[in-house]
Amino acid sequence: MYGHTSIGYISVDSYTSIRTALNPMYQKMYHSIAIRGENIEEIHIDGTELVPKSEIIENIPSYKAEHLTITMIIWVLVVVSAAIIGAFYYILTIQKYKQFGVMKALGMGMDRLTAIVASQICVIALFGAAAAALLTYLMAMAIPSAMPFYLKNGNVITVIAVFILISILGGLISVLSISRVDPIKVIGGSGE
CA 172, CA 54: separation in Å to the nearest integer? Predict the structure, then answer.
């Protein structure tokens, strides 16, 4: 279902009789014939062209434009949510400046601190992505069959992978602020 045009089903004989009543010169012609089955490539009808279903779908008026618009909206939402998550991680990092200052004062290196922050980000991103996927699949099951909605597993996996990657990259920006933490200032020492 593509939801572009209302469709009514009638028999070929009924359609022919209606068209003949409207136009006595009407001749039965077919614009397209849908064939389902195996060995379709072996079918040859003079004056016809065999076209795969995907090509027909791509040529539905406005289908490609609508599909591109929806895809763009999805990726904009992924980027915006990743930016929000990056800001969230940055705020969490700022709140932990004292802990990072103490760790640096005790001699913990930036590579270890980066690994700690990255592991926390990965855990949060994985749980968030899993919860989002679960809610998406539950919503897809609850949507009535009349609604033109189809969830592809490949698209879900791609969005989740990109979301996790962007979350990790956005969260690692906060590592730059950790590298600038001066343990003496953060802990409250006067430098004496």
Answer: 41
